[in-house]
Amino acid sequence: MENAQALADALLTAEFTWDGVAARIGEPGLSGLARNSTIPAADTVGDDALGTLVRLWALGATVPRAAADAALPGLVPSLVRAGLLAIPDDGVRARVEIKPYATDTGWSGWVCSDLTPGLDGGPTRPRPDHVLGVSPASTSLAQLTIPDHVGAALDLGTGSGVQLLHLAPHANRLVGTDLNPRALALARITLALNGVAAELREGDLYSPVADEAFDLIVTNPPFVISPPSPERLTYREGILPGDELVRRVVVDGADRLAPGGTLQVLANWAVTAEPWEERLAGWVRPTGCDALIVERERLDVYAYIEIWLSDAGLDGSPEYRARYREWLDYFSALGVTAVGMGWLNLRRTGVDEPVVRVESWPHLVHQPVGPAISASFAQARTAREDPATLLGRRWIVPADVQQETLGHPAAADPEAIVLRSTTGFGRASRLDTATAAFVSASDGDLTAGQLAAAIADLLDVPTAELVADLLPRLRDLAADGLIVPARTPVQA
Ligand SMILES: C[S@@+](CC[C@H](N)C(=O)[O-])C[C@H]1O[C@@H](n2cnc3c(N)ncnc32)[C@H](O)[C@@H]1O
Question: Domain residues of the chain, as ranges?
């Protein structure tokens, strides 16, 4: 993009940054924009350069030409040529949105996307090739992305390019793909404004990267399960029936992983008569990858359909009821009784017998959850080790794990002892007496076998009996990262 650096400089000079705009329009302005209402922000934004840029690119307003020239010195003609601005008779207006964006690592920049439909109750129906701005789904994927440094990273269905901004600090090489050429054009602007280098390629699913392998693939694909329609919205739905697009994203993505590589998919899936855990595990097992599949939420078909009818701008339209009924009939024909929403994480470990963990985890997680997902793969492998290896290890309790004792204050002993992680998934486990003794003594000094013998002695039970009880609990604690192998070498 011509003049990207000059535009970024002008935006910075005017303090058109996440912090700058937040300070100017305040909480009412920000939450108003989150509700698609520009009035709270317009009331406080002012008329200086920052006020002009906010009106232009975040509020969808037409600004006087002189104000635009003052905020963007010498840039208006080239931004018109680049398709970012238009010059109607009454001033200057935006043709796309440029919004400040900041990550939880302190990075700050901008994301270019299509204008938000439905601002202030205006027309709500997006065009079929609409390019979404940063959505709650975008943020979810960014937060679950593993933060490990990688060689090559792919963002499938890059849209505005927001995931590439998140990947840039920890990937040597970036590739973004999209079926929608308009998305790639706007992603190119996002990348140029932020000085991020990535290859952008057009095409369906993995076809633009058919012969390549990646260390990390992240995707927020068009996962909405909807009946076929000529008005298909590319950002949210494909042409394949049911959740077949998501299945292909997962199965074909696994094929594109380098050894040790990770695939992370934010998705919706159909809940049918077949147990959902078996259905999704059935997608993943043949890939040979280890997997952590997490259902975060489940919606009944009515709630699901209503959300997406509204997203398409059909609330209050004459066809609302007919479209609703058509969608219900589609679900009924496919045997879809509900829709699951969550995360599919795969890792090509190269080890025989993949470990596939499928679970419903609707509980609060501590964000970003990416580090916990990364750690979960090694934890799952440790938990599978043979008894001799597990008992020969020295264990420690990670610093983020707390012990809670529950019961009446006057009771001699607690009713329950719970181990709880204060990060990541916030995993918790209720401990029996022997396991509580084992955990409290696990300071990396003695091996699990030595501790088991000492606890058996203390409780006056045969060691073999105690070990048989302890081992499955040890595996569960290790799988959840509530205890981890001590890093220090075993002393002779
Ligand atoms: C939900 S948006 C995600 C955008 C962005 N990655 C984010 O996280 O905000 C899905 C993107 O996938 C693209 N897409 C749709 N169908 C596709 C396909 N068959 N192959 C590749 N990309 C596709 C859409 O154009 C859209 O940009």
Answer: 4-95, 136-382, 385-485
Distance between CA 50 and CA 72 in Å, rounded?
10
How confident is residue 125, by pLDDT bands cut at 50, 70 and 90?
confident
Q: Is 102 left (phi over 0), alpha (psi -120 to 50) or beta?
A: beta
Q: Please give the Cα distance from 112 to 193 (Å, whole number).
A: 9
Q: Does 490 have pLDDT greater than 70?
A: no
- Ligand 1 pocket test, candidate residues 131, 167, 178, 201, most atoms within 8 A of CB: 178
8-state DSSP, 281: H
pLDDT in tens, 192-227: 999 999 999 999 999 999 999 999 999 999 999 999
pTM of the model: 0.96
What count of other Cβ atoms lies within 10 Å of the Cβ of residue 320?
14
Categorize the per-residue pLDDT at 492 as very low, low, confident or very high, splitting at 50, 70 and 90: very low
- Out of 129, 132, 163, 250, give the residue to mutate to test ligand 1, the one with the largest number of ligand atoms within 8 Å of its CB: 132
159 lines ligand 1 (CB under 6 A): yes
What are the backbone angles phi and psi of residue 451, rounded to the nearest 5°? -65, -40
The token pair that represents 128 in the structure block? 């079929």
What residue's CA is closest to ligand 1, atom 9?
138
CA 156 to ligand 1 center in whole angstroms: 7
Reported in sequence order, the residue ranges of 93-166 that DSSP labels E, i.e. its strands, are: 93-94, 97-102, 108-113, 150-156
The dihedral through the CA atoms of 306, 248, 232, 121 has a sign that is: positive
In 285-410, alpha helices (H): 301-311, 320-334, 370-383, 387-392
Centre of ligand 1 to C-alpha 408, Å, is 54
179 ligand 1 Cβ < 6 A = yes
What was the pLDDT predicted at 215? Answer: 98
Query: Does the beta carbon of 401 sit less than 6 angstroms from any atom of ligand 1?
Result: no
307-319: average pLDDT: 94
Counting runs of H as helices and runs of E as strands, what totals does the chain give? 18, 18
Class of domain 136-382: alpha beta
Structure tokens at 316: 């209050």
What is the Cα–Cα distance from 123 to 323, expressed in whole angstroms? Answer: 19
Q: Is 222 in the pocket of ligand 1 (CB under 6 A)?
A: yes
Closest CA to 21 of 59, 63, 60, 69: 59
